[in-house]
Amino acid sequence: MQASAAWQPSTQVVWRNLDVLSQAQPLLVMNPPELAGWAELNESVPCLFFSQDYRVSQAFRQQGLEIEFAVLPSPEQWQMAEAVLLFWPKAKELAQWLLGLLTSLPRELPIWVVGEHQAGVKSTPKLVEALGGSCYKQDNARRCSLFQLELPVAQPFSLEEYWRLDAWQLADQSLQVARLPGVFSEQSLDKGSQLLLDHLFLPQQGRVLDFGCGAGVLGAYLKTKCPSAEVVMLDVSALALEASKRTLAANQLDATVLASDAWSGVGGRFDFILSNPPFHTGIHTDYAPALALISQAQAHLNPGGVLQLVANSHLPYLEWLRQHFSKVQVDAETSQFRIYRAWR
Ligand SMILES: C[S@@+](CC[C@H](N)C(=O)[O-])C[C@H]1O[C@@H](n2cnc3c(N)ncnc32)[C@H](O)[C@@H]1O
């Protein structure tokens, strides 16, 4: 099978090296960035798929491919794998814990890491060395590298060591926030989210959606201020969903947390939708979720319902909002961010 130039560069590099990568089977593919080619490949090289991204998982399932969507691969996948291919994530700290996880494989297997140079894959040798392993470069093309790793195996691994729970000041409220490397605003509250919290519309009741909830700061704050509201929180990332659940639990708050690629996993209408929408997928700019939020929000709002969001001022959201809503206002503005509000 030929790699397509339309595929992501790291996927193209995998396809150039299929003969080596497919020597041990099944190959556990962790966090593939896209569906590209896997369905065809799976017919000749049995693979196990694992993803922390709901969008990718849905694409696989729509093609009839089994994939686990979770924070960690299941013990069954871990036992069954005869080789592992890890796609390098955007955040170095997430890469660090994923590599740590690989040291808990039950036995020695071929382990591969592939990723883009601009995402930091070149730090693989250093991180692997810190874990007591070694690696060599198998390929270097399309501004990507593919490494083969030798890691100590059967090591204890506990994800709990990477979770943090800290009190953060959210506007006028102190709340416990659960954080994990790989979840948005892992280090500190995002300045855009902070501005939104400072100007947040607070409906005293009704159904509220936190679109792209990350660690759950917006939804949890709203639920604290408006206990009668029914809060729903969605995100595409398994790590974000787990962080949101932990944030809610730590503050004794009750809300529904849903896996969803934009609107794909959510039903019914809302009285208020709030968001600090993403404009990146991995390291690449991606306006699709924000555009889906704005262009389809009307269909998910009750009459009189409100959409409020924060965005970097340079993003064309005001124009998009005006295309889809007859009433739009700017609630607040700094040199970097704007808070928009629109009414159905
Ligand atoms: C800018 S962060 C905001 C997180 C959180 N609301 C906050 O204010 O800290 C955007 C969030 O959207 C999520 N996201 C990205 N693409 C998405 C999609 N297609 N559907 C749903 N959520 C998505 C990301 O995982 C991330 O948690």
UniProtKB/TrEMBL annotation:
Enzyme class per UniProt: transferase
InterPro entries for this protein: DNA_methylase_N6_adenine_CS (IPR002052), Mtase_sm_N (IPR013675), rRNA_ssu_MeTfrase_C (IPR023543), RsmC/RlmG (IPR046977), SAM-dependent_MTases_sf (IPR029063), Small_mtfrase_dom (IPR007848)
Segments forming domain Methyltransferase small N-terminal: 12-164
Source superkingdom: Bacteria
Location of the Methyltransferase small domain: 175-341
Description of how the protein assembles with itself and partners: Monomer.
Protein name: Ribosomal RNA small subunit methyltransferase C
Species the sequence originates in: Balneatrix alpica
